[in-house]
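assembly run, all chains below
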Amino acid sequence: MDHKTNEHSIVLGKRIRETREKLKISQGKLADQIGLGSAQIISSIESGNREVKASELSRIARALHTSIDNLLNPELRPEPQFAWREQPEMGFEEHESRFLLRCERYGLVEKWCNIVTAQPIPSVKFSTSSPSFSQVQIQADNVRNTLQLGGRPACSLQKTLQEDFGVKIFYDDLGQNGGSAFSVTSWFGNAVLLNSCQAPWRRNYSLAHELFHLLTANELKECGKEQIEKLANVFASALLLPSEHLTAAVSAKVESGKLSFESLIEIAREFDVSVDALLWRLVNLGRLESGTVKEVLASSTLRAIDKASFPLWERPERLPERYVRLCLLAYRQNKIGLAKLAEFLESSILDLADQVQDTGAELATGEQAEIAVAGC
Amino acid sequence: MNKPKLLLLDADVIVFAHELDLWEKIKNAYEVHVPSTVVEIEVKFFTSKDGGRRIDLQAEVASGQIKRMEATASEIAEAFSNFEPSFLAALHDGEKEAIAILVAQSSPDLVFCTGDVIAIQSAGMLGLSGKCISFEELLEKAGLLKGVGRLRPSLNRVTHETHSQKGKQRRLTGECFKKPLF
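ok done. output:
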């Protein structure tokens, strides 16, 4: 190896080792995944003693959920901090890396398409570094009004965060007991990962919870992690179940001072939250006693009615619709080619070629595809 | 008899050549070379749902119908060391390898054919426009253009020339480079 090649090999080897160790993948496992025979070869690569071929590099990048650019670039970006809600004990590193790669791609596509997020996400300021639950509820009301989420916030929260504030929202299969969500802020902006295994109403709650973390990223320095999680839950509850609208919905269904389980569950579906979240919010609003709620939640009748009321729901697509739209826009605007489009849409170039042909997504260079708009 | 040109093909061109049912004819007309990343990862194996189209580049390499070319990671790093990272990110791994092969000049007669405008621009930015041709030109030179019909815009000569010029211009202005070349 000449001096320059040796220099590149050392940088690359170091980066591969760092990325592999972060993912807690052994050298042997990586070697198996990319078909390189033995851990010894990975060891040689990581110590800069063996030149890496292009196809090997591409395979290594895929196995480590990163890009060859990230591996070859000697300038490291600062590692973002992930704020998990119910972090699983094992295997979270892979979800984080895959999510980060998707977010980086999303950020690149926005850049290529010259998308400037119209509004920064509103920050939340507290008068104290350790706010009370009621202060958090007031902030939840403010945020709901600023975001114009209306009386049924869960119905529009996701769309509003994505389209108006550029928050990147992805889904991944975190398993039934594999944690519910996490959020992160980095050069690509704010991003949230939700568990695709959860029902939509649980995902809504998780999103609202993660929103609190994004809004208070540099606040709450004196709060412990546990307290911050409690505050995030209070925020999510108050955000998704506005007192005025919830009170009206409950009052309309109360008969002789009582609320049937069916009505309770209907209200939960109406607001797109879980029945648990609804009941605790009613406690919080002083409409129910916590002892009563504990009894109700332990009731097999309630659970049976709740289960029977589940509408059929499908798992969400792993890539957000806005991201897919921007990828296709980048392709149409000649910012990326078909192979890159396939990579970013996590598809194969062969499948995509047919789809692009069918949808007519490719425009001729210089083709007029725009109209003038007054006042802009 | 030696075939007229050494041709390095990108993934998208290989797919389109199969779509147009021209793959066998191109292989007959040219000595086809394919970057290792394209052979082993990007267009590894494919059979269309109706069974009409089938791609197995590794089998074609094994039988000597096409040749596999390989760059090293260092050659890729070196070739694009001055590219602005967000521009470089738009290039696919196979395209990066193909251009790194051109930069390394292992075969001076090699000509690169791609339908990816970013790859065309990149070749121009690296002063390699003369070694890059459009799919339309590839077909024309082999007498295969007749009856093909209207090609996708990214495959035609006009688009190729437009983006080739764009790359040359960037080479002069320094746009999309970390540091200007001149």
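Residues 220 and 228 of chain A are 7 Å apart (CA to CA).

The first strand of chain A starts at residue 83 and ends at 85.

not gonna interpret more than that til we talk
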